Amino acid sequence: MFNRKAHSTDLRLFLPEVIWLGTKHFDLAREMSDRVTGEAQQWQTYLNALALLSFEQWLSDRLPDRAINRDDCPIGYLRVGEFKFWAIATEHLLDELVNIPQNAIDKPERAAHFYVLLEVLEEEEKVILRGFLRYDELVNYRLRFNFKLREGCYQLPLSLFDSEPNHLLLYCHVLQAAAIPLPVAPPEEKLPEYLKETRTKLSQWLQGVFDEAWQAIDRLSDSEFDLAFSTRNVEEGAKRGKLIDLGMQLGNQTFALLVNVTQEAEEKLGILIQLHPTGKERYLPPHLKLTLLSKAGKTLQEVTSRSEDNYIQLKRFKGEPGKRFSIEVSLGDVSVREDFEF
C-alpha cells in the first residue's frame, strides 16, 4: 500500500494541488450561502460551497467518465459512483489541526469513504487540496490516539492526511466502495400501525384539527414556562407551540417551537417558525441551531443563536399541500427533529 509519511524533502509540499476559482464558483457559492441566516453561518456555508464546487471540478477534470452527484447531499458531500466524499473546508492550517464534526463520522447517513481537506483562499481566488483520509483509517486513528471532542468536532493532526492526491484517484480506479465499509443504520423496529405516523399535517391546522402535542400559544403562555415572546409578531392563521427538550446537555432546559400556518394563493401554505426560551430564561443559549430540512435531509435554511438572542426565526417559506419537510433543533451533537407535511 502507499507510504503515507510525508518528508520535508517531498516536492509535493512545495507544489500543492491548486484549484483556481472562477466567477461561476463565487456566484453559486453566494447563492448557496443566501439560503441560511446569520452572518457567521452564511460565511461558513460560503466557504463550504467554494470547497465543494472546486473539488467537484477537480474530480470532474480527472475522472471524466464518472458520474458526480451533489443534488441530494448537504453542502460538503459528493457522490462519485458508489464512493462518498466529504469536503472539509478551512481558511488556514496555521496550527496544523483539522476539525471533523462527530456527526460526519458516526451518523450512517453522513459518513463518507474519503474526507478531503481543502484550504479556501478566497481573496487569492484559489483552493488548495491539502490531503485526504479514508474512513476506516480515520476510525482506527481515533481509537488509537483517543481523540477528544471539542465543540462537536474531533481535532486530527494534519500529518495523518495523505498529501498525494493521485492516491485518491487511484483508489477510485482500483477499489470497490465496499472495501471501505461505512456504518449502517440499525433496522427500523416494526411499530404498531397507530405509532407509525408521527408527521404533523399542517393543512389540518387550518381546519381546526390539531395533534395533542401542539398546544395553543395562550396555553403555553399561561403555563409555568412563561414564554419570552409576543404573539403580536406572528401573522394571522393557525398558531401552535410545542416544548422541545434537548436533555441533560442543557440541564433539561426546554424551548418553545412556535409554528404559524397561513393560507396563501394558488392553494399554497405559508409557514413561519420561531424558537424561544421558556421559564425564567430570557435568552437562548449561544450556538443553538434551528434548521429547515427537505424530505431528503438537505439543509434549506439554518439560523444559529448568538449570546443574547431572546428568539431565533427562519425566513418565512411556502409549500404545496402534501410536500414534506423537517425542522431540527440542535446544540453540538444533540438534536431533536420534528417532521411536517404542508
**DSSP, total strands:** 19
Percent in helix: 10-25%
Radius of gyration: 23 Å
From the N-terminal CA to the C-terminal CA, the straight-line distance is: 52 Å
Strand fraction band?
Answer: 25-35%
Structural class: alpha+beta
Count of discrete alpha- or pi-helical segments spanning 4 or more residues = 7
Low-confidence stretches: 1-13, 222-232
Largest sheet: 6 strands, mixed
What order do the helices and strands follow?
EHHEEEEHEEHEEHHEHEEEEEEEEE
Please, what is the average pLDDT? 83
The gross shape turns out to be elongated
Q: What is the fold's blueprint, element by element?
A:
Elements: E1 17-20, H1 23-33, H2 39-62, E2 68-69, E3 77-80, E4 83-90, E5 97-101, H3 103-106, E6 114-121, E7 126-134, H4 135-145, E8 149-150, E9 153-157, H5 165-174, H6 193-196, E10 200-201, H7 217-221, E11 238-245, E12 254-263, E13 269-277, E14 289-294, E15 299-304, E16 312-313, E17 317-319, E18 324-331, E19 334-341
Parallel strand pairs: 4-6, 10-19
Antiparallel strand pairs: 1-7, 2-3, 3-4, 5-9, 6-7, 8-9, 11-12, 12-13, 13-16, 13-17, 14-15, 14-18, 18-19
